[in-house]
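One-letter codes give the sequence; the integers encode the fold. A sample entry reads:
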Amino acid sequence: MQSSTESFWSEIKMYEERLKSDPSSYCFAPLAEVYLQAGLLDDALAVSRTGVGKHPGYADGQMALARVCHQKGLVDECRRALETVATAVPGHAEAQRLLARLYKESGNEQAALQALQTLLDFHPDDMSARIELDALQQRTSALEDDDDLELIELTEADIFEEPELEQQLVERVKPPVRTVEDPWAGIDTGAAEAALAPPALEAVWSVPEQQLSAVAESHVEQDPLTTPTLAELYVTQGFPEKAIEIYSRIVSADPQNLEAVSRLAELQQPKPAVDAAQAAVVAADLSVNLPVEGAADQQAAVVVLEGWLENIRRLRVCR
């Protein structure tokens, strides 16, 4: 059995000899087909062009030229050859199908629809052609709907300016302000502020320079909350050791403070026992009420008081 290559060369040799003996022979069409199958595109194109030039109405020759031009990418020449075949043989399925695709690729969708419809008229069972026709019809109808939309042209009479709105102040509703209870409402801060206030300008100028520097250093180093008012607050709440600590700081910072020295000595002396009736009277005369509920222990009161002191320090720093 001969191989395909040997078969091609034998056919090529046979058709070449026939065409050589009779240049006007119609065998140029099968010779171009054999060249095309063998991959000899240039030879197929040359033979088919020569043959079509001699026999332009030969459908098989035009179809051979169309196949070669399609393989070579010669779209215009391929389309002209297919149109010749479709005119001579309307029922040529391959010519109509390839011609419809070329029309579609070039944007001539109406011609593509006509080619597919002609193909289905001769071959109604060709499902691939029917699917292509339905898809192309849907696409064409959608484009026609878009083209039917009229463009609205506006004239100067149709254009009007909107009246400017008067500038009005719009009052926005303010969100309600949450009321926060003041944790220092029960503390008399007037005395503390008076004690922490810096000395008047006249008093500063009346102090000698050596004393002025000492006062400035003591004022900077001393804790702003180390005041007699705070010490007495500790005493009223039953924490004399805290009061002694504060008075000790005051005396260390200002040894000339006779009131602090006297009060420190008084607190350091042992206190006589106080009966229950006197304790009740002392408790009733207290002017500061700390937020201690019921019979809370002293440690809880200390925690609350120290939290207040820390908040007061922060306020002092912010000011």
User: Anything to note?
Assistant: Residues 201-207, 215-221, 285-295 have pLDDT under 50 and may be disordered. The chain has two domains: 4-143, 189-318. Residues 9 and 38 are 9 Å apart (CA to CA). The domain at 4-143 is CATH 1.25.40.10 (Serine Threonine Protein Phosphatase 5, Tetratricopeptide repeat).
